[in-house]
Amino acid sequence: MPPYTITYFAVRGRCGAMRIMLADQDQTWKENVVTFDDWVKGDLKATCVFGQLPKFEDGDLALYQSNAILRHLGRNHGAYGNDNREASLIDMMNDGVEDLRLKYVKLIYQEYDSGKEAYIKDLPNHLSKFEAAMAKNNTGFLVGNKVSFADYSLLDVLLNHLVLSPTCLDTFPTLKSFVEKMSARPKIKAFLDSDAHKQLPINGNGKQ
Ligand code: 6SG
């Protein structure tokens, strides 16, 4: 029995990064898939701390909030830096990734048709910040010399943006190389190539 269970809708969504992370860290986990029909009954929602999914279980510990889950996995699997200083920088970078993820989610769920063109035009202003941070660190990771949960979250967000705008990394060589190298890590590659991953839509409304 794997110790980990993810309870979520049949999308990549807010579980994309944690699944990539679990795969790369050689973990197995159980997927508990919630359908829309089941969710709207409300029984499960009533048990969720903030009334939302994902829910993540590590044995008898139940966690909500996708970034708290990533941090938990960072602590469990040595992907939270080498010391407190690095951990704080990783938190900072992950919050930056979350800001970009929220902009993306707003586009997808609220203004896809009217806002896509302007979003893609503005995207370099956001990607350039990650490009600069990654180039400055110069190790192939956002912080320090080893992979952290923030790298997995950045990878997930960048992969989604490459679907939205396939050329968006063409002017950002460091980010482009980051995506290529991370995606080629054997366990990440196997996960990204798996049906379990490929069959899931990125988002819950069919837009991507
Ligand atoms: C949706 O927003 O999937 N959770 C979502 N939606 C249902 O009743 N800050 C936290 C975190 O980081 C955000 C949680 C997040 O963990 S994620 C949730 O619980 C609710 O609020 C995006 C996603 N969307 C798919 C979706 C959910 C409801 C409508 C569309 C899937 C399709 C239909 C039902 C379930 Fe559907």
Question: What does this protein structure show overall?
Answer:
The chain has 208 residues and is an alpha+beta fold. The protein has helices spanning 16-24, 36-41, 43-47, 66-76, 84-110, 112-137, 149-164, 173-184, 186-192, 195-198; strands at 4-9, 29-34, 55-58, 61-64. The longest helix has 27 residues, at 84-110. A hairpin with a 2-residue loop joins strand 3 (55-58) and strand 4 (61-64). The protein has two domains: 4-79 and 191-198, Glutaredoxin, CATH 3.40.30; 84-185, Glutathione S-transferase Yfyf (Class Pi), Chain A, domain 2 (Up-down Bundle), CATH 1.20.1050. Strands 2-1-3-4 form a four-stranded mixed beta sheet. Helix 1 (16-24) packs across helix 7 (149-164). The termini are far apart. The mean pLDDT is 98. The protein has ten helices and four strands. It is globular, with a radius of gyration of 17 Å. Bound molecules: S-[N-(ferrocenylmethyl)carbamoylmethyl]-glutathione (6SG). S-[N-(ferrocenylmethyl)carbamoylmethyl]-glutathione binds at residues 9, 11, 13-14, 36, 39, 45, 52-54, 65-67, 204.
Q: Key terms for this structure?
A:
single chain; 208 residues; alpha+beta; Glutaredoxin; Glutathione S-transferase Yfyf (Class Pi), Chain A, domain 2; four-stranded mixed β-sheet; 10 helices; 10% strand; binds S-[N-(ferrocenylmethyl)carbamoylmethyl]-glutathione; Glutathione_S-Trfase_N; Glutathione S-transferase
